[in-house]
Amino acid sequence: MKSEIVKQSILLFEKKGFSTTSIQDIVDELDVTKGTFYYYYSSKEQLLMDIHEEYITKLLEAQYEIINRSYTSYKDQLIEIIRLIITDIVENGSSARVFFREMRHLSEKHIKIIKEKRKQFRLNIESIVEEGIKHGEIRDDLRPDMISFGIVGITNWSYNWYKTEGEVTPEQLVSIYSKMILTGIEK
Amino acid sequence: MKSEIVKQSILLFEKKGFSTTSIQDIVDELDVTKGTFYYYYSSKEQLLMDIHEEYITKLLEAQYEIINRSYTSYKDQLIEIIRLIITDIVENGSSARVFFREMRHLSEKHIKIIKEKRKQFRLNIESIVEEGIKHGEIRDDLRPDMISFGIVGITNWSYNWYKTEGEVTPEQLVSIYSKMILTGIEK
Amino acid sequence: MKSEIVKQSILLFEKKGFSTTSIQDIVDELDVTKGTFYYYYSSKEQLLMDIHEEYITKLLEAQYEIINRSYTSYKDQLIEIIRLIITDIVENGSSARVFFREMRHLSEKHIKIIKEKRKQFRLNIESIVEEGIKHGEIRDDLRPDMISFGIVGITNWSYNWYKTEGEVTPEQLVSIYSKMILTGIEK
Amino acid sequence: MKSEIVKQSILLFEKKGFSTTSIQDIVDELDVTKGTFYYYYSSKEQLLMDIHEEYITKLLEAQYEIINRSYTSYKDQLIEIIRLIITDIVENGSSARVFFREMRHLSEKHIKIIKEKRKQFRLNIESIVEEGIKHGEIRDDLRPDMISFGIVGITNWSYNWYKTEGEVTPEQLVSIYSKMILTGIEK
DNA sequence: CATGAATGAGCGTTCATTCAT
DNA sequence: TATGAATGAACGCTCATTCAT
């Protein structure tokens, strides 16, 4: 039941937004009563936190898994991370959209926790960029922090528009974005 | 009065989110009563629509102004548009954040109107990219639509993190992002 | 309207108790809606506080009025205060019962304020007793504080049982209690 | 288990009040589940009734025990009853406070039963007073019923303020109150 | 133009109670 | 004996909106 609540909530939060979705909406969809919801979650905000925490934790784990593999180049490592973000958004679009849009509705305390982890995710990219610069793979005139913001921006933004039914496969998008970022669009 | 309502609303919507901000919150800040609000706006949603419409209209106008100038290259034109987005987010951060985050709370009908204009903004970029490809300025293996998504993604994302008090000036950010997009980060 | 809310609330709080009386109960009785209640009171607790504050303030004022009059003896002054308590309970029975029974439902902060005033009321009695002892009117072997507790106990308790329709008039009760306390029941 | 439920409930009812204490609060304290509670008690109200019944029954029994002893005077008998009330409040403060404050939350039917027993307790005092009057020990100008109300008032009220850690021992309080009532405070 | 009183629908949450196991 | 999942009714409270003045 708990996992069903999470599943339905994500769909509803994605469609209507967190604050516009009522507990009633959620339990109606599951044909249970509000009491049941509160048997599993102490508050609506706690549910949102659970969703956020699971999302970012899994993503961070996957990122560390990538980081700890061995690579022939830092550029390849960056491509792998671009792939991680894109495939995650494609595969868990609803969760991703909830994650990106509804963080504001967490409590101060919870926001802090999530922000820290999100920051860590970006800092890990920044570190790879720094290594790439140090090893002469990446140009040194562009600030690693801004590059990392650029990478998460370009990839994360796709949660706003990417459609599974579209013409471009995830792998193609990974390829295009990787080329854009690494070699630019200039001829 | 009407413009003061808009001004305060934007600040509050940015800080607390649209659905968490009450009409009471808005009028309290202006030291008027709710009646006054409803004299100027027929509903809370209408106010949000006004904010959205003004924002995207101004942005589109600025974009057309850029497009209609003459350029030595399409790349320069793209840089100009990157500059437009960045400076707008820096200068009108609150409006930008409300625009990006709260669109969902518009009515179906209004959403359609705004989405169309947002799409037009991106399509205008796509057109420039297409021209750039046609004239051999931009590589032809990356799909103009995806490139345009990439450009708006990388730039728009900055509303999530850019801080005026930070180390990087808007112009530096324009420069970095322009280089990233046009020539890539590879050494 | 505000005063009607107070009036009805006191009756309901007396009859059903504070926590068993719902806002709905109150507004139903007045044929208005819950919104109306919250237009006048920010919370149920705030209403209870208003009731408490008005009650104890008026009582204290009446007590000071008595204290500041001139008397032929301290005993007469004590009788006057016994009269004050008894007549107050008889005349404002509902308020008195709410005051004595529901204080616990105030917030910590509010409880402190009310407790202080209640204590002051008793201390004022203690002071009279002390003066009475000092001037040889009252025996000195019984502790003024305990005497004051005795006086408020014997009189306040009547909120638990006194009925206007009973055989004993308030004035008779004042007389009986004054005699009991001042001269004892021993023959 | 049943007695542990009673014990904990009394403490919680005293601290938070009956209607503010939830079954969950009670069972949490005992590290069992709500099912357990309902195995022993059919309802929350039934538990309250049990507490009330046990309290007043024991008190009445103790009172009869006093009444059935032989005394040299009716005044001594009254003192013994004052002692009973005071020591009971001191020793079973929590139960006493619950008894005095929460009766209102019993059902109509149960209230009637308890009220009857409480009345009996007072009537027994009234009878002693009457006998005292008849035998010339107690003055006959003060109504035995009012005197009995005075006695229970002055003594019962101590549940509102008496603190075990205070300066006055129970026995001292008994002495003071006995003197106040029997011989008055006049010099 | 603006106010202030009032509405009514809905929300998040609590909780006594039930019941199959 | 005891649990744990679920119910359903109610509660305190919020808020966009209306409207007579």
TrEMBL record, chains A, B, C, D:
GO molecular function, one term: DNA binding
Signal peptide: none
Domain (HTH tetR-type): residue spans on this chain: 1-59
UniProt cross-references to SUPFAM superfamilies, sorted A to Z: Homeodomain-like, Tetracyclin repressor-like, C-terminal domain
Segments traversing the membrane: none
Entry keyword set: DNA-binding, Repressor
InterPro entries xrefs: Homeodomain-like_sf, HTH-type_Tx_Regulator, HTH_TetR, KstR2_TetR_C, Tet_transcr_reg_TetR-rel_C_sf
Classification via PROSITE patterns: HTH_TETR_2
Record keyword DNA-binding present: yes
Pfam family, one: TetR_C_24
Residue ranges the UniProt entry marks as DNA-binding: 22-41
Name of the protein: HTH tetR-type domain-containing protein
